[in-house]
């Protein structure tokens, strides 16, 4: 039995992941009982699994599991957050999808994204990274085309699959080159394979492997699927497909840059500059394209592309704990505001039939509180003080301005894009608040589902709290060091 | 003495009395604030000039230098006197000007708020406190421009001001972020900050951007002419004498740090000179009395910017002081004329006011001559001459542009003056005038006195600010000064002849470049182009993605190879 | 950089040859297109039926399930090879794996994914 004990103790740090996996199995089993299938029992089972996983993941222990997964400071912070966000999406599902009869299947997909994201966030090996990303992708494909009869949803799912396949292929191609050139797949092994400067071929292969992560962070030009998926999928599913993988991708990006490309091997100005250019292009393209959109969810999609670029900029500005803290803090602020905004849009979408700007008119009369909260979340995304988005942008700017000329240029691009994005958000706010509307009856008859209201309030509390918690950044940096 | 550094709180009692008092003469109580502020400045000037510091630690712990720091020194005292003095005159003027307005109580409350934040800006001891005042005056400016809510274009004009101010605020915020810990104290800035190499020019650029947004320089000029939609006393106080000068004040404050970045200083000289020239030209094309004066303000602020670019911050400050007096005077005269003509602002309809408003005519003449720089007799000549002297001895080319705009100054000032007060053709509609009362006229006397006498304050000012150039000579009576003054007067005279010849219909074609609508159109086109790229064609998407991979690899090879 | 020069040259040559041949052939060859020449396969039989017909979506479902279970069954082989070295711990690993697989199978079966109606 000592072997078994050994195995269990070795895998003990992965208890949160195991918990979510067991949760998935439990949800599937519950779905087989006809009496439970039409109820939301599956969702609540998933919420329970995520909650336990979040508590388990809070443990401050640091560990390395078989050179495959690393529970370091970043993973230790991001994994519980992922579990928590997944739980919130599931709770919101209990409110928003009351009338659906496929709760088990939906919860399985959301949990799949959560599990994949937790694995990616802790990945220290290219194969595990790839497997985690694939797990996220497979579940996301299903969520994106959930509305089976909707042509837009079908198109979005198709694009998502083909684009994801291409990105995955490029990534695997790069990984195979890395393995061929270094003989390693684990991050530390790749970083330690060369005593002096890393050959260009290895760097190029690593950049190709980076494509898979960039695809999840929606970096231009790997972002094309995002607007269609956001528009085609139900708003609540988008919250799972959009925010959760970004958290994981940001975490693994930080770890990969720090361990595979340490400054001793690669002049930081070179990789940093390449990533900064990518971030700059993302910010520019996304902010300008968002101006021309006529659908609130598409605007949020382009905002996600811009926020991905900002995270990339934070990661590009040096490997220190301060830069990592700013990137993670940015992701936390983004997750709170993004999930909240999408949930608000989900409520409005259900009430008004669509998220097109023209259809949003009169939202303030019909759902005053939801619309006010939507404005709050959009303000946070735009970076208005004292909300979380402002503090986060400030932190990233501070990091980027301390870097080389390309980073400084990217910081200015961030400022410019912030202004342009603010205009796009104002388009949504104008449509929902100011636009003259047919006199819609106030939705007093349709009460706000309690779970939805709970999640909305939690997101609002996070958005305001993270903005007002002035010592957040030093606290995060302390966790990392 | 420490109390003096809290001068920004002085308007608060007046603000409360005005806001909650039940007096029929709302606003009289507010008058206490500006007078107290001016007196505070004067007391400091008469004392032994030891800077007064107030420090409260632990304010805003998120910031690198978290102290709340106030600082009253010579420079701040000068600004206090300017702010307090001009606002006192404007308050008295407004008592008459706004007498019949329903929003009179709100107007005075907003003015009090403005004076409070402007004084805070002046007394700030570090950049963070300065930013609080800096953002505050922007807000006050917006509220006062949009004061007459029922007029259609006031809100748009206010939003333009907010937009330009937001650019300036963002730049200043960035500058604060960039400053190394422990050096956002303005005193350290005064002595030059130890900075990483290359950091100085970035920091200086950011400060220059912030200042030019506040002072309507370069491409950020666009909001100031629109800001004339507000009440005229506001234009006089905020958009001529004090708030727009805050950019110049910031540059004077940080001039030792700017000196570490000579290339930025050089660019600053060009920026100021070109703005002075182009806005002078733009003023010639205006049909609206107040907009013509607004472009003149842009032009004069350009002189001050150029002075800092020449490395002569004292000259900039001196011009700031004299300009505050004569430009506020000109605006108040314009207000009196507009008030008399029942809100009419178009030049052709205002002609022939000399007979009806003789007192205003004399006061406006004093202001105009000071603006043109009539040597010896007016204050404008002293300060403007100092700037040009400094320019001619450091960078000749921008300075010669300034000399050219001296002539332009005379021309546009004369055009505005003779357009309103000059001889008439006789076929103008007769005005049913609403003559200004004595309170309004008397409130302008101190400013007129300032426009004449402040030139002689140069030497005491220089002594007060110990970092002024030692070899300061007041050149008004020198050969150069007389020549420059003569140039300005030639322009003024030319305008008289021109006005006679064209019978008041003189106007140059408008050639201001409206870059704001241009930028909006450009971004709209770009947005549509990018949106067209997202056309739903998967083939194009994948191609672009692969192209992206190739470009990233190429960039990596280029960087590493 | 220089060690990759030969590779770049090689790629350029590889690219140039087909492009060159296509250009030359396009210039020199006579053009008399007809329907049959325009088809993808000029030689042999024409395609027996149009490939853009509708086919039952159940086919895709079964194919997907087959793929998943096929790949997962593949994992048993390396475990079987290393069975003795892994010992009890190996049994634990494969049991957990089998449990997950079994749940999936049960779910697919009970929801009727394997019935061809």
Structural commentary:
- The complex is a heterotrimer of chains A (481), B (561) and C (117).
- Chain A is an all-alpha fold.
- Chain A has helices at residues 2-11, 15-32, 34-37, 41-57, 73-96, 103-122, 126-144, 151-182, 187-192, 200-216, 225-232, 235-260, 268-291, 296-316, 321-352, 363-366, 368-382, 388-401, 405-434, 450-468, 472-480; strands spanning 63-65, 69-71.
- Chain B is mainly alpha-helical.
- Chain C is an all-alpha fold and 117 residues long.
- Chain C has a domain at 53-117: Methane Monooxygenase Hydroxylase, Chain G, domain 1 (Up-down Bundle).
- In chain C, 65% of the residues lie in helices and 0% in strands.
- Chain C is flat.
Helix content of chain A: over 70%
Radius of gyration of chain A: 21 Å
Characterize the quaternary organization of these chains. Answer: heterotrimer
Overall 3D form of chain C: flat
Sum this structure up briefly.
By secondary structure, chain A is mainly α. Chain A is built from 21 helices and two strands.
List keywords for this structure.
heterotrimer; B: 561 residues; mainly alpha; two-stranded antiparallel ribbon; 23 helices; 2 strands; 67% helix; 2% strand; globular; C: 117 residues; Methane Monooxygenase Hydroxylase, Chain G, domain 1; 4 helices; 65% helix; 0% strand
């Amino acid at each position: 039995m000592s072997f078994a004990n050994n195995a269990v103790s070795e895998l003990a740090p992965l208890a949160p992941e195991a918990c979510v996996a067991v949760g998935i199995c439990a949800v599937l089993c519950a779905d087989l009982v006809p009496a439970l299938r039409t109820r939301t029992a599956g969702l609540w089972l998933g919420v329970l699994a995520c909650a336990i996983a979040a508590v388990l993941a809070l443990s401050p222990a640091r560990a390395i599991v078989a050179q495959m997964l690393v529970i370091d400071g970043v993973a230790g912070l991001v994994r519980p957050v992922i579990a928590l966000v997944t739980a919130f999406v599931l709770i919101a599902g209990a409110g928003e999808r009351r009338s659906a009869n496929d709760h088990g299947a939906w919860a399985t997909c959301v949990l799949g994204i959560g599990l994949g994201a937790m694995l990616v966030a802790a990945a220290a090996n290219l194969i595990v990274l790839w497997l985690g990303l694939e797990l996220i992708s497979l579940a996301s494909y299903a969520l994106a085309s959930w509305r089976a009869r909707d042509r837009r949803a079908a198109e979005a799912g198709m694009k998502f699959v083909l684009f994801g396949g291409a990105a995955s292929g490029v990534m695997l191609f790069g990984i195979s080159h890395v393995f061929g050139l270094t003989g390693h797949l684990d991050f530390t092994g790749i970083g330690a394979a060369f005593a002096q400067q890393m050959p260009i071929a290895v760097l190029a292969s690593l950049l190709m492997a980076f494509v898979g992560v960039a695809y999840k962070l929606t970096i231009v030009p790997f972002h094309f699927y995002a607007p269609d998926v956001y528009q085609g999928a139900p708003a609540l599913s988008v919250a799972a497909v959009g925010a959760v993988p970004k958290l994981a991708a940001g975490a693994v990006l930080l770890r990969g840059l720090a361990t595979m490309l340490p400054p001793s091997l690669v002049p930081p100005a070179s990789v940093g500059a390449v990533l900064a250019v990518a971030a700059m292009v993302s910010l520019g393209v996304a902010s300008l394209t968002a101006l021309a959109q006529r659908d609130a969810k598409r605007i949020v999609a382009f905002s996600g592309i811009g926020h991905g670029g900002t995270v990339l900029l934070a990661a590009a500005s040096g490997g220190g704990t301060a830069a990592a803290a700013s990137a993670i803090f940015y992701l936390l602020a983004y997750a709170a505001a993004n999930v909240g905004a999408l949930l608000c849009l989900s409520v409005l979408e259900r009430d008004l039939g669509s998220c097109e700007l023209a259809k949003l008119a009169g939202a303030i009369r019909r759902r005053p509180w939801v619309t006010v909260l939507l404005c709050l979340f959009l303000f946070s995304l735009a970076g208005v003080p004292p909300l979380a988005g402002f503090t986060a942008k400030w932190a990233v700017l501070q990091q980027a301005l301390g870097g080389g000329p390309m980073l400084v240029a990217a910081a200015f691009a961030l400022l410019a894009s912030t202004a342009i994005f603010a205009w796009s958000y104002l388009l949504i706010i104008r449509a929902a608040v100011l636009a003259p509307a047919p006199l819609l009856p106030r939705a007093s008859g349709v009460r706000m589902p309690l779970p939805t209201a709970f999640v909305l309030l939690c997101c609002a509390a996070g958005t305001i709290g993270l903005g007002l918690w002035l010592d957040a950044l030093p606290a995060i940096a302390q966790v990392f060091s | 003495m420490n109390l003096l550094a809290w001068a920004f709180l002085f308007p608060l009692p007046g603000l409360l009395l005005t806001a909650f008092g039940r007096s029929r003469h709302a606003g009289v109580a507010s008058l206490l604030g500006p007078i107290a502020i001016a007196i505070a400045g004067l007391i400091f000037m008469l004392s032994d000039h030891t800077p007064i510091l107030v420090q409260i630690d632990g304010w805003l712990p998120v910031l690198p230098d978290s102290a709340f720091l106030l600082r009253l020194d010579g420079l701040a005292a000068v600004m206090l006197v300017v702010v307090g003095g001009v606002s006192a005159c404007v308050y008295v003027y407004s008592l008459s000007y706004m007498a019949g307005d329903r929003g009179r109580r709100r107007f005075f409350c907003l003015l009090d708020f403005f004076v409070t934040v402007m004084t805070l800006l002046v007394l700030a001891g570090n950049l963070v406190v300065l930013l609080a005042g800096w953002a505050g005056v922007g807000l006050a400016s917006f509220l006062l421009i949009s004061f007459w809510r029922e007029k259609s274009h006031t809100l748009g004009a206010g939003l333009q001001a907010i937009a330009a101010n937001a650019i300036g605020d963002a730049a200043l915020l960035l500058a604060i972020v960039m400053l190394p810990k422990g050096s956002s104290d303005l005193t350290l800035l005064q002595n030059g900050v130890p900075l990483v190499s290359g950091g100085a020019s970035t920091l200086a650029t950011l400060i220059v951007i912030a200042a030019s947004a506040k002072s309507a320089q370069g491409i950020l000029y666009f909001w100031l002419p629109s800001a004339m939609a507000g009440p005229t006393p506001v234009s006089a106080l905020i958009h001529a004498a004090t708030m727009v000068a805050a950019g110049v004040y910031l540059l004077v404050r940080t001039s030792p740090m700017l000196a570490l970045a000579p290339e930025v200083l050089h660019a600053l000289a060009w920026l100021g000179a070109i703005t002075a020239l182009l806005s002078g030209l733009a003023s010639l094309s205006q049909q609206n009395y107040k907009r013509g004066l607004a472009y003149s303000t842009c032009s004069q602020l350009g002189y001050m910017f150029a002075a800092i670019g020449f490395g002569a911050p004292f000259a900039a400050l001196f011009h700031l002081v004299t300009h505050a007096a004569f430009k506020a005077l000109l605006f108040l005269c314009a207000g009196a004329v507009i008030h008399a003509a029942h809100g009419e602002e178009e030049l052709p309809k205002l002609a022939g006011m000399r007979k009806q408003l003789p007192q205003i005519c004399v006061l406006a003449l004093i202001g105009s001559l000071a603006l043109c720089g009539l040597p010896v007799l007016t204050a404008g000549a002293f300060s403007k001459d100092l700037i040009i002297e400094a320019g001619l001895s450091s960078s000749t080319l921008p300075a010669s542009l300034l000399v050219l705009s001296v002539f332009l100054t005379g021309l546009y000032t004369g055009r505005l003056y003779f357009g309103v007060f000059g001889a008439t053709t006789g076929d103008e509609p007769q005005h049913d005038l609403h003559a200004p009362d004595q309170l309004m006229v008397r409130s302008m006397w101190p400013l007129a006195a300032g426009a004449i006498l402040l030139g002689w304050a140069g030497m005491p000012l220089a002594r007060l600010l110990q970092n002024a150039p030692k070899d300061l000579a007041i050149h008004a009576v020198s050969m150069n000064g007389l020549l420059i003054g003569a140039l300005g007067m030639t322009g003024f005279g030319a305008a008289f002849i021109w006005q006679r010849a064209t019978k008041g219909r003189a106007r140059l074609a408008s050639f201001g470049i409206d870059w704001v609508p241009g930028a909006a159109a450009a971004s709209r086109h770009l947005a549509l182009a990018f949106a067209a790229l997202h056309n739903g064609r998967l083939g194009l998407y994948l191609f672009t993605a692969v192209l992206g991979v190739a470009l990233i690899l190429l960039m990596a090879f280029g960087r590493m190879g | 950089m220089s060690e990759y020069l030969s590779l770049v040259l090689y790629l350029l040559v590889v690219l140039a040859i087909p492009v060159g041949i296509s250009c030359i052939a396009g210039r020199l060859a006579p053009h008399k297109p007809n329907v049959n020449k325009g088809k993808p396969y000029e030689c042999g039989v024409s395609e027996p039926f149009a490939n853009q017909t509708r086919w039952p979506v159940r086919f895709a479902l079964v194919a997907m399930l087959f793929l998943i279970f096929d790949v997962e069954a593949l994992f048993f082989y390396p475990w079987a090879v290393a069975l003795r070295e892994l010992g009890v711990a190996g049994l634990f690993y494969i049991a957990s794996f089998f449990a997950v697989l079994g749940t999936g199978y049960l779910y697919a079966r009970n929801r009727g994914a394997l019935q061809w109606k």
